[in-house]
Amino acid sequence: xxxxxxxxxxxxxxxxxxxxxxxxxxxxxxxxxxxxxxxxxxxxxxxxxxxxxxxxxxxxxxxxxxxxxxxxxxxxxxxxxxxxxxxxxxxxxxxxxxxxxxxxxxxxxxxxxxxxxxxxxxxxxxxxxxxxxxxxxxxxxxxxxxxxxxxxxxxxxxxxxxxxxxxxxxxxxxxxxxxxxxxxxxxxxxx
Amino acid sequence: xxxxxxxxxxxxxxxxxxxxxxxxxxxxxxxxxxxxxxxxxxxxxxxxxxxxxxxxxxxxxxxxxxxxxxxxxxxxxxxxxxxxxxxxxxxxxxxxxxxxxxxxxxxxxxxxxxxxxxxxxxxxxxxxxxxxxxxxxxxxxxxxxxxxxxx
Lengths: 191, 151
Prior knowledge:
The structure holds two protein chains of two kinds. By secondary structure, chain A is mainly alpha-helical. Chain A contains ten helices and no strands. Chain A has helices spanning 6-33, 37-40, 44-54, 70-74, 79-88, 90-98, 104-124, 128-131, 146-158, 162-165. The mean pLDDT of chain A is 91. Chain B has two domains: 1-38; 52-139, Flavocytochrome C3, Chain A (Flavocytochrome C3, Chain A, domain 2, Orthogonal Bundle). The relative contact order of chain B is 0.12. The mean pLDDT of chain B is 83. Chains A and B meet through helix 9 of A and helix 2 and helix 3 of B.
């Protein structure tokens, strides 16, 4: 009755399966725990700066009571993208230990760089996290203000992505960034 | 009877205080009766009339001026745009650089001139706070009678 007998093979497979379930379940639970707002703001860097600004915005409190929390915008939902983002986030742990942004002054000094990183990520993914909730196909342009409807139609036509216009909607814009320099729309129409 | 009072001066002061208090009380009570506040005359411990909420008016093409040289009123909501030391949200669309692409009215040339008459590259700091003069509008009845007729 060795490891290579029929019974032995069954035992190995069975225990392997059980251990696999336990480890995978544990890994996933741990990862989901890092995907909560309470985890994000357990660091004072997040809690004192960006979180406070976010509580003033429409993604925190609004007419219909739907809220988008930190991971809804900053962590991809799909597994592969999520794992990639989580691995990249290890750099954030390193800087947490270094104390790179551990005062509001340091944070503000770095804000343009930090914001630019996130804008690049969103631009690269065609604003994937925005589009988890916001979808051009479900937008009723008749219910929008004319200036929004015009610009959205222009965006569909030119395949612009959300973040190109909607910067600084949940957090304060960084100093040194002028939105007027960054307006999409190439040709200038003469009036 | 006057044993405990140290001098006539103290007596005079006491009388004056009482007199002033009485006058104040009379003035105050008559003032309360005469003034009808905009809040209504509900008692302080009772709930005031429910505030009527108004939606900000969105007017395509802008709101016409009511008098010459009136700062144009804002024909859209503004709560998403902030004006801080670090940035002016209005300038995202109304600046020299962006107004054509955004099809928005441009900030007037006068807003680039500082108090010494020098023309600057950016909006003059005395014109920086747009909402000091330009305000969004709601459709509501005036709180007091107003017979002003615009142009």
